[in-house]
């Protein structure tokens, strides 16, 4: 009987210490948008509450959703384990561009991610509650969103990345539902100018953020990413700028995420010192 009780206690301790699932789907209420918003959380395979983990927020692109990354690149589960970090893939709506829209009250995703989701994740998972252990990146619309959110919330994020990011919203003023979020460029040019990352970097000081930008040479966003790199060089803002053969597709991003997480992993290690 004593042996049975010992085994039962060991099982209970094990269930408390280790997560049952490596991939969780969560739903967090957004008071500003008056709705529940889903996210995928990917834990290291050996996740335990006895350890505190850095977190990388990984944003999807235009027309996709919170589940796109894990469905398309399931190998990110291996990367979470390899680098001993937690990945959080929020839903950013079909075309939110991850800012709080000044004209659409149903699209307030900056507030959702930086206030509602971030605090929920820190409250429900064993995370390191410090900007030095927090990063954000994404692809395409999410690439712009990640840099946008990090620049505006440097108190929350110390690392930021972009993969094939639409880093200048004015690149195409008639596509991607941007007019639905900002108004037309002709009537509200200041909204487009002020929310474009390529202009926002003017507010950065060197070493405020660890930045990595990644884009394929055949990508239709390549020229605006190269322009962002040149702007950062002029401003003397240290950053990594990676250019490889590739286009605006999942073959490129499946490769790219490996470089991004390696970059963040090294930043997290430096942050411990």
As laid out across the biggest beta sheet, the strand order is: 1-2-4-3-5-6-7-8
Q: What's the structural domain tally? A: 1
Q: How many strands appear in the DSSP assignment?
A: 8
CATH-assigned fold name: Rossmann fold
Rg on CA atoms, Å: 19 Å
Which structural class is indicated by helix and strand composition?
A: alpha/beta
Please identify, by name, the CATH architecture: 3-Layer(aba) Sandwich
Principal-axes geometry comes out as globular
CATH class label: Alpha Beta
Largest sheet: 8 strands, mixed
Describe this structure in words.
The chain is of the alpha/beta class. It has one domain: 3-Layer(aba) Sandwich (Rossmann fold). Helix content is 40%, strand content 18%. An 8-stranded mixed sheet has the order 1-2-4-3-5-6-7-8, with helices on both faces. The chain is globular and about 55 Å long. Mean pLDDT is 93; it is low at 4-19.
Q: Which key features would you list for this structure?
A:
273 residues, 8-stranded mixed β-sheet, alpha/beta, globular, 10 helices
Tell me briefly what this model is.
The protein has one domain: Rossmann fold, CATH 3.40.50.1820.
Which SSEs are present, and which pair or pack?
Blueprint: H1 2-17, E1 23-30, E2 35-42, E3 55-59, H2 68-72, H3 76-83, E4 86-90, H4 109-124, E5 134-138, H5 141-152, E6 159-163, H6 178-182, H7 189-195, H8 197-200, E7 210-216, H9 222-234, E8 240-244, H10 250-272
Parallel strand pairs: 3-4, 3-5, 5-6, 6-7, 7-8
Antiparallel strand pairs: 1-2, 2-4
């Amino acid at each position: 009987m004593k042996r049975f009780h010992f085994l039962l206690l060991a099982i209970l301790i094990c269930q408390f210490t280790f997560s049952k699932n490596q991939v969780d789907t969560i739903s967090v209420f957004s008071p500003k948008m008056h709705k529940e918003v889903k996210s995928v959380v990917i834990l290291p395979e050996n996740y335990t509450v006895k350890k505190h983990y850095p977190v990388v927020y990984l944003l999807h692109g235009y027309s996709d959703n919170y589940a796109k990354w894990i469905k398309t690149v399931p190998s990110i589960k291996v990367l979470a384990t390899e680098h001993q970090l937690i990945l959080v893939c929020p839903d950013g709506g079909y075309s939110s561009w991850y800012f709080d829209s000044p004209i659409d009250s149903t699209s307030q995703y900056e507030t959702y991610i930086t206030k509602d989701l971030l605090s929920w994740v820190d409250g429900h998972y064993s995370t390191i509650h410090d900007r030095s252990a927090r990063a954000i990146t994404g692809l395409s619309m999410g690439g712009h969103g990640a840099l946008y959110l990090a620049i505006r919330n440097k108190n929350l994020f110390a690392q930021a990345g972009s993969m094939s990011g639409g880093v200048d919203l004015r690149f195409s003023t008639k596509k991607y539902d941007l007019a639905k979020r900002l108004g037309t460029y002709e009537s509200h040019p200041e909204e487009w100018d002020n929310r474009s990352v390529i202009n926002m970097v003017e507010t950065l000081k060197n070493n405020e953020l660890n930045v990595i930008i990644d884009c394929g040479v055949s990508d239709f966003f390549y020229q605006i990413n190269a322009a962002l790199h040149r702007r950062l060089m002029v401003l003397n803002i240290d950053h990594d700028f990676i250019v490889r053969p590739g286009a605006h597709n999942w073959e490129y991003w499946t490769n790219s995420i490996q470089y991004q997480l390696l970059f963040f992993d090294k930043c997290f290690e430096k942050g411990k010192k």
